[in-house]
Hints:
mainly alpha; elongated; 5 helices
Amino acid sequence: MYGAVWDNTSFYFILTSIISIMCLSITCIYWKGKSHFPDCSKSSEAAPSKPIGIKKPLDIVKKLAEELPQEVKVLEKKVEAEQLEAIYKLMQNHGQFGSTTMDDMQDQLKLYGF
């Protein structure tokens, strides 16, 4: 019964299994329970929770958008309208997308936050 299992097992499988076990053992011996993460503390009372200063990408985009000069905002809207018009014309030329109107496309863009 056990002979059939070992007949189908390759030498490379056994070798890689032994090497993996050795690497895991060496890693466990090396670490010996050390914490290599500076934020981790043994007690939650020792370190009060404080924000770590990571901002969400959407917050960064909103802040940058507020700081843009008015000319850049107008230019950005103009380029966006031109790109949307080019996409609309491409969709109309192919005819695979059914009867899509410009308002439908703008509604779709609003769903994704554009």
